[in-house]
Amino acid sequence: MLKSVPGTNDIFSQSKEYAFREPVFRYIVETAQKVLASSGAQPIHTPIFEYAEVFQKGVGLTSDIVVKKEMYVFEDRGERLLALRPEPTASIVRAYNEHGMKVWPQPVRLFTWGPIFRAERHQKGRYKQFHQVDYEAIGSADPLVDAESIALMVKIYRELGLQGLEVKLGSVGDPEDRLRYNAYLRELFRPHVKRLSQDSQARLESNPMRILDSKDPGDQALLGELQVKPMLEFLGSESSAFHQAVQRYLERLGIPFHVDPSIVRGLDYYVRTAWEVHHRQIGAKSALGGGGRYDGLSEMLGGPRVPGVGFGIGIERVAIALEEEGISIPPDPSPDLYLAPLDEAAKGEALSLAERLRPKFRVEIGYSVKKVGKALEEALKRGARYVGFLGEAERQKGVVALKHLASGEQREVRWEALEEALGPVSGVQR
Ligand code: AMP
User: Fold this and answer.
1) Atom of ligand 1 nearest to the CA of 120
2) A single Gene Ontology molecular function, please (predicted)?
3) 262 and 125 in one domain?
4) Which of 85, 116, 320 to mutate for ligand 1's pocket (most ligand atoms within 8 Å of CB)?
């Protein structure tokens, strides 16, 4: 029997794992949609694969995604290289440029949700295919837009009912600030190059800031000894003022956050604002989402210079946090009616009646002829409110023998009167 690839998951209502239950997934997506739509953002769906260059240029050649070959790259019938998206921002900025959205009222604010692919070693909270809700505000360089993005992200978590949130705000500065910081880091690490891990030695020239992200114990120890100054101390006057402005807006909105100098986002194209939202209870893989400003990205993709800011929320991580906090998602409602044909000729009538009652009511039918006792059992298994028997006698009279399962009460109801007999609709229609 063939099985799924480890690190990928089937998401369905009866999944043993809470994080992969479809109603949980849907609750997260629908809540995010509601919050983002109320801000006037519009949904967009881009293809799940693109020319590999979109991501190579878009996430940057020194990012883990490219360097550690976390991208699923394949040839399109022996022609160009394609890649499954390892993050959504580059695709959305590509679409912004391709469809001339620069002439729309700015910023253009878009959101999407769907699968993301990274060839990582999988563990709880880290998968090869996972899902994100993603929001992008493209076309404004105002710190107000950064603050609004952070506020929208926090609002989504709060609307979901999450409490153990930590908003960590940082700034990766402007490119000039980073040049100065990288020069400082190279000078600091060079005398100790032999103690650095191989990965970090490679990063020393290409992107020394990434050494600060290293999980290698040797690198960690060295970092502790060297007392590395944070990037935040190297911000120029403009990026520093920008960072302050974002903080003032967040304070005004009453959003708790703390400035965390260690936030260095893994993607190369970020400038200025970078943030992560963590959850206190979910352990090592605690990041529920992250975001940042990427003013240079559009140009890297061959478009005009267009500033932008956005975030990605990890849907599975949020599901794990919801479970941790004991937040239960209402299950999908059970059927209002299970309509059971008692003879072959009643099957067609059962289907027509069901079609007439749907979608106002949740109606399931028996697909094969059953005896009364067996039909009742099937209705109970499904947790239906009513079972309707439809046999020869009922058909002759144009009625259904309708039994209310909770009370056991049974009566004959004319077909035209079924709607009234079933009402009012129970629960929310999902
Ligand atoms: P990133 O683009 O790496 O900042 O990811 C944004 C968010 O997606 C993270 O904060 C996580 O919540 C989630 N995430 C990232 N990588 C994975 C993964 N491999 N499996 C599950 N969730 C992930």
Assistant:
1) 19
2) histidine-tRNA ligase activity
3) yes
4) 116
Give 26-52 pLDDT, tens digit per residue. Answer: 999 999 999 999 999 999 999 999 999
Distances 397 to 31, 40, 313, 341 between C-alpha atoms, Å: 47, 54, 57, 15
Per-residue pLDDT tens over the stretch 217-270: 999 899 889 989 988 999 999 999 999 999 999 999 999 999 998 887 656 678
Average model confidence (pLDDT) across the chain: 92
Q: Are residues 62 and 168 in the same domain?
A: yes
**pTM of this structure:** 0.90
Q: Is the CB of 128 under 6 A from ligand 1?
A: no
Count the domains in the chain: 2
Which CATH number does the domain housing residue 386 bear? 3.40.50.800
More confidently predicted of 226 and 339: 339
Nearest Cα residue to 212 out of 266, 133, 276, 275: 266
Q: What is the pLDDT of residue 4?
A: 97
389 and 306 share one domain: no
Pocket mutation for ligand 1, best pick of 8, 126, 157, 269 (most atoms within 8 Å of C-beta): 126
**Which of 275, 292, 324 is where one domain is finished?**
324
Classify residue 183: in a domain, yes or no.
Answer: no
Q: Phi/psi of residue 398, each to 5°?
A: 70, 40
Distance 289 CA to ligand 1 centre (A): 7
The Å distance, Cα 144 to ligand 1 centre, comes to: 25
End position of a domain, from candidates 278, 298, 324 = 324
- Among the atoms of ligand 1, which is closest to the Cα of residue 276? 10
- Identify whether residues 50 and 131 lie together within a single domain: yes
Calculate how far, in angstroms, residue 315's C-alpha sits from the geometric centre of ligand 1: 9
- What is the percent of the chain with per-residue pLDDT over 70, rounded to a whole number? 96
Task: Give the Å distance between the CA of 110 and the centre of ligand 1.
Answer: 19
Atom of ligand 1 nearest to the CA of 126: 20
Binding site residue list for L-histidine: 87-89, 118, 132, 136, 265, 269-270
Domain that holds residue 410: 337-422
Residue 191 lies in a domain: no
Residue 69 covered by a domain: yes
